[in-house]
Amino acid sequence: MDPGAGESAAEWLASATRDDIAKVLKDYGEERYARRIAARIVARRQQTAIETTSELADIIRAAQPAKARHAAGAQDPATRSFQAIRIHINGELEQLRLGLQQALQVLKVGGRLAVISFHSLEDRLVKRFIRQYANPPRPSRHLPLPADLPEPRLQVRQRARRASAGECRRNPRARSAVLRSAVKRR
Description:
This protein folds into two domains: about 10-90, Orthogonal Bundle (DNA polymerase, domain 1), CATH 1.10.150.170; about 105-135 and about 150-185, no CATH class. The protein has nine helices and three strands; from the N terminus they run H-H-H-H-H-H-H-E-H-E-H-E. It has helices at about 10-15, 20-30, 35-45, 55-65, 65-70, 80-90, 90-105, 120-135, 165-170; strands at about 110-115, 155-160, 180-185. A three-stranded antiparallel sheet has the order 1-3-2, covered by helices on one side.
């Protein structure tokens, strides 16, 4: 996530294949029109380099059907694509996985793990991580329990919490925030 290190989004977009761009948009942005957008990006860069974010946003908007662009109350059609590219370039999901593992290692027994996520992919990753360590795999219910059955390493503190309507009015960025927490048991 250091802007001076690694490949930039512009460099990646200038060299990535149409299929790679579509996969990133679909996987990380959950973009419905990923293939159309990727095809437009590749077609445009063959004519001239894409130099600004506003040029990229215009390409993305033009690739989407009019009904998607003009849906009432919808976010900017380019938002999901920009988010997907950022997640890919920064390796954000892998960084989150590593951070969760490291947090579990450094937490003392009784320590609390609290994670706020702002994207459904991040939240899904956090939810599965906590569930994995709060509910370790158990043998079949048809077999006797082994004596050395491992205890869960985490205990869920509370259900996922989202910002209230009042909080979202005061702070619109909170609308997608999800807080999940757990306590280290062993």
